[in-house]
Specification:
This protein is an alpha+beta fold. The chain has eight helices and 29 strands. The longest helix has about 50 residues.
Length: about 500
Amino acid sequence: MPVEGGSSSGSASAARHPKQKRKAHSLSIRRTNSTEERPPGTHRGDMLEGQDSKLPLSLRNNLLDLFGQIEREFENLYIENLELRREIDSLNERLTGDGQTIEGGDPTKGALKTKASHSTSQLSQKLKTTYKASTSKIVSSFKATTGSRALCQLLKEYVGHRDGIWDLSVTRTQPVVLGTASADHSALLWSIETGKCLLRYAGHAGSVNSIKFHPTEQMALTASGDQTAHIWRYMVQLPAPQPPPDVSAPCDDDQDSSDREEGEVDGEGPFEVPTVRVATATLKSHQGVVIAADWLVGGRQVVTASWDRAANLYEVETSELVHTLTGHDQELTHCCTHPTQRLVVTSSRDTTFRLWDFRDPSIHSVNVFQGHTDTVTSAVFTVGDNVVSGSDDRTVKVWDLKNMRSPIATIRTDSAVNRISVSANQRIIALPHDNRQVRLFDMSGVRLARLPRSNRMGHRRMVCCSAWNEENQSCNLFTCGFDRQAIGWNINIPALLQEK
């Protein structure tokens, strides 16, 4: 529920909507309910009797459910491994048996030796093929797209938050800086070139779930688990640029980095940076966690999305509530505004997203879209007439605003999709996943690349959000995750399109 203080793990619990499915590497953080079955006639309270604990019964019940899910997941993996081992042992026995026949044969029969050798070679090849096929689902998640290092190169890592980063954004005005919103109750502004933290906003009393910048002024909009959204001004001075990092050295992209501890981060944290603690305006009409917020075109109004199942429209100058947008059946997960028109799209755990039209002041129409089967984690506008929606049902759908009865493209993935973003110039979709992958697709659903991930680069936990920056004739993609860091990538667009 809404965060008003406490430990970092508590803040992270309220930073996102509660999910009832497993999240990779964040089991204790993102799940608050469980629908797993228990033995008939057995109650959680009965299972906890006789255990001396000061924890509330509801919290103990949740912990019991979580540990039960973990146990079942490991049990499934164990059973699968046993089956693979039996299959490999069976093939090994057949291979060994053929080898014994060759040794016991007549050495004068060369033709028989050649035939047996050929049979052994075929069986050996079959063993390799079978083992490769059996493990392809596991190994494929660690393989990079061919040439991915040339298409997507590490630009900078931004390390300093003390808890997971839920959202990030790039300023629309000079100086161009990166903003990150974290479960540690703070928002940070970073120098993109140097990775140095420039400013810290500490005005919220809960997890900061979203950050967006004003289209023309040096103002930021943040949404928080403390049931408010804040508008605050910033002034930063960019440091002198540093030489680019050496990314030419080869890296082992197949090595899993999950064994690296979450607390092991490189770089300097924002210990001695300017801090803003007072907001210019505080928007506080919601009755639940404010999960996202965005500026309408022109920057005179903002929209907020909350776990209270409503979105609110405010006047920036007066902080006055103009409209309350109701209709979703469950908690909202995201909101986004059109870059050139007064359109708003809100997404929700009720598997739908809604398009709100404020272009005519006298009519506020709304359209409901039901293309997903699970939580819609985000829906964003493109520069043009498209909306792209991502969901926990492991699909991303591209819609045409002129005819939104059915999607014009569907992207199917192997993991839940979090807050997506679409580049303005090239219209490339960046998909951050629960399984730590970040994939790039075009608007027709064709996969272009996957960002490198190894023990030296990439995220070590769930990737929560992505954001593009196409200033100064370059294309940068920024990602953030629950490993407490944001990462900047330089995307080679010409090579990417040529690879397509």
